[in-house]
Every structure is written in structure tokens, then in C-alpha cells.
Amino acid sequence: MSAVLLITAALLLVAAGLTLFRLLRGPSLYDRLVALDLLVVIIMGGILVEALQRNESANVLLLVVVALLGFLSTVSVLRFDVEERR
Amino acid sequence: MTGTEIAASVLLLGGALLAVLAGVGMVRLPDVGSRLQAATKLQVIGLVVLAAGAALLVPVSEVLKLALVVLFQLATAPVLAQLVAREAHRAGVGKPLVRDELRNGEGPGAPPPR
């Protein structure tokens, strides 16, 4: 079981690396926003895998907080980005 | 490896593979709209599958919290995608669309003339 969790964590790491590439290279602000949003979900997956690994599932509640944070941060950035208006 | 553990590991690996697919989609796809497609859809489905895999392993009381997280993600991901797409469209980012009702002003959601 722990081997499966290790493979899952490795795959999530690969996904995070790819998203980080888009985050750094993304030409426009909106690419970076999409990349950050995906990164938040990957981090949530990582928290879930880590909770299963230690099989102490108290911090499943942490997922709700991270999901809320990801949503609110993206919305707030969108709310205040006016400099790219054409 | 009992039956539920096998099922849980299959689901967990599936969720992780979906996350990698989302990452590949983010890198390979040409412009914001298509990247948004990859990111939003796959992140939600990946999380649902991952949470389903985890739900088999955690005690029943935690399954409710997992369901809450999944429900929240299912609700907010489309909203976020719509917001980002609209802002990106208004800022004129990415390739010009072949058929762009919003740009020519006759679409339902056309921006008010500034």
C-alpha cells in the first residue's frame, strides 16, 4: 500500500513540475493564474496522499481550507487586474 | 492487499495520472483557453478520483469531509474557469477566435461599451 502511495506522490510531483514550468513561462497573467490554480489542486492531492501515508486522517479538513484559499486567491487576483486592459 | 486496498490503489493511481495529464495539457496546449480546459476539467476529475480512492481507506467520519472538499471543488472550478476566460478574452490574450460573438459586440455577454 505504501508503494502505491509513493508512486502517487511521485506522479503528483511530476504534475507539479509541469505546472511549475507553465507558471514560470506563461506569457500572460492568465496562464499563471491557471497554473497556480492547478498547483493548488495538486497540493491538495499531496496533502491527501501524505495523510494516507501517515494514516492519520485528521488533516483531511485541511483540504477544505486549501480549496477555499485557492478559489479566493484566484478570484481576488482577477478582481484587481486592470493593467492589461486594451 | 485486501480488495478495498486494491480498489483504493487503482483509484489513487488513476487520480495521479489525471493530474500528470493536466500538467502535460498545461505545457503542450497553445493558448489560455485551451490550457484552461485542460486544467479545470482534469483537476476536478483528478481530485474526485483521488478522493474516492482515499475515501476507501479513511474512517467513515472523514469521508464526509472528503465529500465536502469534492463538492466545493466541483462548484468552484467552473466559476473560476469562466472568470479567467472572460478576463483573458477582454484583455485580448491568446489567439484570435474564429467565431467571436463577444468581440463583435453582438454576443449576450458582450462587455458594456467603455
Structural description of this entry:
The complex is a heterodimer of chains A (86) and B (114). With 86 residues, chain A is mainly α. Chain A is 80% helix and 0% strand. Chain A starts with a helix and ends in a 7-residue tail after the last helix. Chain B is mainly α. The mean pLDDT of chain B is 83. Chain B starts with a helix and ends in a 10-residue tail after the last helix. The chains are: A mainly alpha (86), B mainly alpha (114).
Mean pLDDT of chain B: 83
Largest sheet data of chain B: none
Mean pLDDT value of chain A: 87
Number of strands of chain B: 0
Q: Biggest interface and its residues per chain?
A: A-B, 49 and 50 residues
Secondary-structure-derived class of chain B: mainly alpha
- Kindly name the structural category of chain A: mainly alpha
Which spans of chain A have pLDDT < 50 for at least 5 consecutive residues? none
Number of domains of chain B: 1
The secondary-structure element order of chain A is HHH
Termini distance of chain B?
63 Å
Q: Topology of this protein?
A:
The complex is a heterodimer of chains A (86) and B (114).
Chain A: H1 2-25, H2 29-53, H3 60-79
Helix pairs in contact in A: 1-2, 2-3
Chain B: H1 3-28, H2 32-55, H3 60-91, H4 101-104
Helix pairs in contact in B: 1-2, 2-3
In a few lines, what is going on in this structure?
Chain A is mostly helical.
Distinctive features:
heterodimer; A: 86 residues; mainly alpha; 3 helices; 80% helix; flat; B: 114 residues; 4 helices; elongated
